[in-house]
Amino acid sequence: MRQVIELVGLALVFGSVLGKNQTEPNVGRKVPIGRIVNGTAVSIENHPFIVRVYIYNFFICAGSIITSKHALSAAQCLDFKPNPVIVSLIGGSATQASGGVDFRVSSYTLHPCYDRRRMDFDVAIVTIRSSFDGYQNIGTIRLQTTELTYAPSRPTWCYVAGWGATSGKTKTTSENLRLVWMQAMPQYNCASEWNPFEITPQMICAALPNTDACSGDRGGPLVCNEQLTGIVSAGDELCEGQYPMIFAKVASSAIRLFIRENAGI
Questions:
Q1: Residue 48 in this model has a pLDDT that exceeds 80
Q2: In the chain, how many H helices and how many E strands?
Q3: Residue 80: which CATH number?
């Protein structure tokens, strides 16, 4: 029988800092997502759309630039409703320790149907005060607008990127941007692997043995065919790739409508 574990939200990490307390959601498995496990260090020049999300100068999540003023991340990253004044995005640098441009946030919006217990509709739009335009190594990524097709003879290869820890045995995040390749998989296959946890139409999965993303990569991109296909949402407790990774599906009708209404694309 599979181990019964719980999903720990970011609110628990920052509860003592911000004076907020929330109950841990229980999805039947602990999912401390965010580490790029068995990944490769990459440069920001080839991935200029990736940003880091900070609260009170604490790195908490990754995100993806989709317009000159908007980035997509996971709703769980901002679920505890921090004041936008203390939220910022840093882009243009592959390393946490140096470089990059700090963009102050004016507002953020969680999907109105976001369900922290089921991890459904796990998407947020972050709006900055200024503009992403005009900076070196900072740019947008196109959104996936149609459903992926799956053919056993022609697997769809996608990559996940972020600054999460590189092992399930440590919570220390990576200093450098890292990337790992995975294969997108049909929803019914993913649902079978995660049963009884529900894989909804707003989710998409990808997997490859011994590769994963876990605790600082949440909110980061799943990129297929050079398009933003998913947003890192949940994964294997130990970050060992035992279960498929779960992403918020950008092409789902409800999420696409949310993006159009709040980011205009």
A1: yes
A2: 3, 14
A3: 2.40.10.10
The whole-angstrom separation of Cα 122 and Cα 114 is: 6
Q: How many independent structural domains does the chain possess?
A: 2
Give 164-209 pLDDT, tens digit per residue: 766 555 567 788 999 999 999 999 999 999 999 999 999 999 988 6
Q: Is the domain of 239 the same as that of 158? A: yes
Global confidence as pTM: 0.86
At residue 79, what is the residue type? D
145 and 241 housed in the same domain: yes
Distance between start and end Cα atoms, the chain: 44
Classify the C-alpha dihedral 109-90-141-160 as positive or negative: negative
102 CB-near residues (< 8 Å, 6+ apart): 88, 89, 90
42/177 Cα distance (integer angstroms): 6
The CA angle 184-211-97, to the nearest 5 degrees, is 110
Same domain, 175 and 122: no
